[in-house]
Design goal:
2 copies of one chain form a homodimer. With about 160 residues, chain A is mainly β. Chain A has one domain: YaeB-like (Elongation Factor Tu (Ef-tu), domain 3, Beta Barrel), CATH 2.40.30.70. Chain A has no helices and 9 strands. The radius of gyration of chain A is 16 Å and the shape is globular. At the A-B interface, strand 1, strand 4, strand 6, strand 7 and strand 9 of A face strand 1, strand 4, strand 6, strand 7 and strand 9 of B. Strand 1 of chain A pairs antiparallel with strand 1 of chain B. Chains A, B: One of its GO terms (biological process) is methylation. Chains A, B: Pfam families: TrmO_N. Chains A, B: This is Methyltransferase, YaeB family. Chains A, B: GO terms for molecular function: methyltransferase activity. Chains A, B: Keywords: Methyltransferase, S-adenosyl-L-methionine, Transferase.
């Protein structure tokens, strides 16, 4: 089944190159950016400013092709791509939870953003963990268990170019 | 910018109609379903079973068109679509965190699933809140503050048909 989408805006950040970037929001704490939403969607932002955090879905537009098994930035072992957050994945959709600082017309000022400048935006959802967190009893995070703290300091390299 | 995606599999659930469904995972606690991933992507599941929860991105395939302001299931006021999780949104991508029960070849058995039977899958990511949760100091959830508990019991109606 083929699906046609259209970007609804663009994410602007200080990251101009796929190398040397933070690899997760926890490594991008305090990094500011902005989203310019297409003007035709501006009315969809009503009441969004009452949320402190938003969930962005975007296209990892500089990635070509995908790998089924990858060696992610934080590990030396190979894992299935769906057990990682590697950008080189089928449909190459990225997902980040960022802080919403303020909204001015169709521009949304954000912090903790870990994406490349010029990234096409697909969706904005309010971040409301209350809607699922009572379904999570015992959390297991696989190979991230011993590695997730690396996300704070590790930067991307060229492996997914 | 036009973007072409392709579903990577199908989500199967007991929900055959867009009306009368749970509206969030918290209302679907214990509801079992399964994902049949296209066989060509099966190698991408390696090590996924070490995670207790996964983040699904999927196409809200029965939704046509979008609204910029919506009255969501849980509220009587109108909000901008990006301040809600209404399905009638540009790019109509849905997002759920579900429990992973087991994997057998290219079939993934899941719980707490709140989507329609036959939903096209776009991506599976491991659910690793550690990768962003230290960036969240003070969480504000806007209009959900007084309404999010309704998600446990409220079912969908026909408003987004």
């Amino acid at each position: 089944m083929k699906i046609e989408l259209e970007s609804i805006g663009t994410i602007h950040t200080e990251f101009k190159d796929i190398e040397g970037m933070p690899i997760q929001p926890t490594g991008a704490k305090g990094v500011e950016g902005k989203i310019v939403l297409d003007e035709k969607y501006a009315a969809g932002l009503k009441d969004l400013e009452d949320f402190s955090h938003i969930h962005l879905l975007y296209l990892l537009h500089k990635v070509e092709g995908y790998l089924l098994e990858v060696k992610p930035f934080m590990d030396n072992n190979t894992h299935g791509v769906f057990a990682t957050r590697s950008p080189k994945r089928p449909n190459r959709i990225g997902s980040s939870v960022v802080k919403l600082d303020k909204i001015e017309e169709n521009t949304i000022y954000i912090s903790n953003i870990d994406v490349l400048d010029g990234t096409p935006l697909l969706d904005i959802k309010p971040y409301v963990p209350q809607l699922y967190e009572d379904t999570i009893d015992e959390l297991k995070i696989g190979w991230f268990e011993s590695n997730h703290k690396k996300a704070k300091s590790q930067k991307s390299d060229d492996r997914f170019k």
